[in-house]
Each structure stands twice: as structure tokens, then as C-alpha cells.
Amino acid sequence: MSRLRASLTPYALLFPGTLWLAIFFVIPTVVMLSLSLQSGDVVNGYAFTFNWHSYVDGISTYHDQIIRSLVYGLASTLIQIVIGFPVAYWIAFKGGSRKSVYLFMLLLPFLVSFVLRTISWQFFLSDNGLLLGPLKSAGLVPQDFHILATSAAVIGGLAYNFLPFMILPMYVALERIDPRVLEAAQDLYASKAQTFLRVVLPLSLPGVFAGVLMTFVPATSDYVNASVLGGTSNTMVGNVIQNQFLINQDYPTASALSFTLMALLLVGIFAYARALGTEDVLEVAAR
Fold it and tell me: Which residue ranges of the chain lie beneath pLDDT 70?
């Protein structure tokens, strides 16, 4: 009896998580896949007809928004790496006994709603807001200069909102580096640059890899930043999917666009993992 209980314990521990994924991920994904292959309308109802035209029509009609979303997601991810790595490095190696305080300060904005944080940036970047108002009054920028309704505003909003998701994995990877490894590099007459490039950077790749996954995917599929900070020329595919689902009620097109975006993101992730060398990253993470 005890042996049977011991063999069933792992499955019992997995059951809640598996049930959660089945209800809130697998079933909705299957339903959305079914919707993407249906035809009809809200009035007359939808029928499953293997209608692949939703994919063709969605890509041909909204290819600009799809490409723009990928570009915005990539640009914001690169900005987060450039900003986040020095922050994570400083906290890991220079934070001392106050590391927890710095991490709490980093996560403090997340106590506020995602939408409210984005709206606060709208006020900050408005034509006469806290940033541009004084600059225009001082004559440092033209009166017709604006940041809102531009690609820069949307990309900046994406980078700001998802930045902690980039910093935290990199911090964890950097914090695990044994200081004796750095001392050994210095004993072998490696310069600070060589130590960073040959020791710190390779050992931090698992954190960079995880950070990119946690930021590129939600940033590419986001629609809040484009709605609040962007204009009509900054629409992302997330905005299109939202409108098709909630306003136009064109469920097949919305579902087809969702699966198209999912496929593109998976291809990008696998290509990124292959280029980075997933096996090498996993070997480093296991040390």
C-alpha cells in the first residue's frame, strides 16, 4: 500500500497544474482552432467547414500590423536587454545586503495596474505634459513636436512595462555565478573586459534566454500600449484581434490571426534558441 501511495504521489502533485492547463489553455486553444476553421456570422451562426480562407484573408489584409508587431516586440526586447543587463549586473554584484530592497523597488510599479501604468505614460508624454511642456516653454523643441502616436512611444511603453521580466531572470543567472570563478579569471591575468566576455556573459545566457522569452512574446502580442500611446499608424495585430473578437465579432478571422501570430512567435523562438545554442545554455544553467 505504501509503495502504491509513493508511486501515485508525483501524479497527485501534477494533477492540479495539469487540470489548470487543460481548462485554461488546452481547451481554449482547441476551441479557437475550431473557430478559425468555421464560416458564417453571428446572426446565422457558425459552422465547421475547414474554411482556410480566414488565414489567407487575415494575413493578406493585416500583414502590415503583423510585421509591425514583430518589429515593435523585437525593438522593445533589445532595449530591455540594453537597460536590464547593467541593472541586473549591479544588483547581483554590487547590491550587497540590500539586494532584496532593490528587487522590491524594481517590482514596486507592478502593484499598480498595467493599464494605469500605461496611462501614466500617456500623461507624461503628452504634448504639454511633464516632459515636453518645460522643453517647449524653454524653446528646446518645436511647438508642434510630439511623442505620442509614434512608434517610439509604443516601443518605449512596451519596454517599460515588461522590463522587470527581463531583469529578474538575468539577475538570477548572474547571482548564481560563484565569485571564485571571477577571482580565478583575474588570477589568470584576464582583464575586466575579458572576464566579462568569457566568463560573466556566457554564464548569464540562461537568464538572457529566459528574459527574451518572457518579454518578446507578450510585447509582440500586446494591444494596450498601441491603444493608449500609439495612433492609427501604430496599430498592432493585438489591436486587430481585439477588434475582430469584441467589435466586429468576426471570430474566424480573429482566431486565424491569433494562430498565425502564435506560429510566427514559435518559429522565432526556435530560431533564436538554435542560434543561441539551447544545449549550451542548458548545460550552463545546470552547473
Answer: 1, 4, 276-287
